Input
Amino acid sequence: MSPANLFTWASGWRSPIYCDNRRVLSHPAVRAQVRDAFAELVRTKYPDAEVIAGVATGAIAHGVLVAEALGLPFIYVRSAPKGHGLENLIEGEYTAGQRVVVIEDLISTGGSSLAAVKALRDAGLGVLGMAAIFTYAFDTAARNFADAGVALDTLSDYPTLIALAEKQGYVKPEEVETLRKWRTDPANF
Output
């Protein structure tokens, strides 16, 4: 988090925060906590899940961990079909009609996540919902998921992160307003 020094996202948006969930994988206790939270969410909310799907690339490892914990098959969705070999968009074995829960690491607008859902649906899979580690909780993401008819569950979100960062003194009180203001209109910040 750096309210004074902005990060540039792939979308071109400038942001005072960069959420790198890949770092979770480097810390066994945190990695296990995320895996277990996802597994419990799937067991509770999606007990009919037959397959776990990860969204490439950030959620492949997390998805594998969840699938392993639940004893379910794992597949993943590429952002584009592979350019050689079988030219797959979805990697792994699945059967049309299977019920799948999609694991994602991060939700901003939901565009790439919902593209993965579309690929799974186009392949004949029944998407029960998506679970992500973190969401920025943008209104546009909520609309996009609602419009696509996809339930989204997250382990954490931007408002919770900012409140915790403020409480723990990770950000200065004068920076909190900047962080809150950014979230209301990130495209024009």
About this structure: The two ends are 15 Å apart (CA to CA). The longest helix spans residues 28-45. The longest strand covers residues 126-135. The chain has a mean pLDDT of 93.
